[in-house]
Amino acid sequence: MKYKRILLKLSGEALMGDRQYGIDPVRLAEYAAEIKQIHEQGIQIAIVIGGGNIFRGLAGAANGMDRVQGDYMGMLATVINGMALQGALEDAGMLTRLQTALKIEAIAEPYIKRRAVRHLEKGRIVIFGAGTGNPYFTTDTAAVLRGVEVHADVILKGTRVDGIYDQDPEKFPDAVKFDTISFDDCLKKNLNVMDTTAFTLSLENKLPIVVFDMNKEGNLLKICQGENIGTVVNV
What we know:
The protein is an alpha/beta fold and about 240 residues long. It has one domain: Carbamate kinase, CATH 3.40.1160. The protein contains 8 helices and 11 strands.
């Protein structure tokens, strides 16, 4: 296997499946099956998931809501998604722990770096909820931060697109895909891989990012086996 420990970043919208809102149990089960494939290979797995399928703080702020209040609501949405994913993973026979940046002790452990690493070493899948615990930071930033903290080998960003293109492939059929690209080139070309804070944190800590299509069966395993799936962003 190419990687020993990964941080998988999933968007909240990905959990909607074909729905307009909320969580699709079929999509959850599909993701659990994909994650189980790499878990069975002994790869240590940490996961950060967004909350956009339930609530997005920026959207609330755009509609007149206090930004800080909206961001905290978004953090709670990520906890709901984390609980849903935890249930799907455990239904598929994996051991998990949900850790949150906000204390919600009835349903999750508080985030403690050393405890998270110990869970990973014991083969448990650790889901990090509530982002960084601070407003004005995205779950992309939370993913990179947690990835750096637990010494992940790579950030795997699962999306509905099969990599990074020079322009939006859903709008421009002639868009060109990159197999590999440097952090500097991403910034120069203004490619929206992640938000700038997350991207800079990844660059400073030399933590590579792989952007790939999570909805294509087998992609996650192929990446961990070293196949050229998606786009690799590195120094």
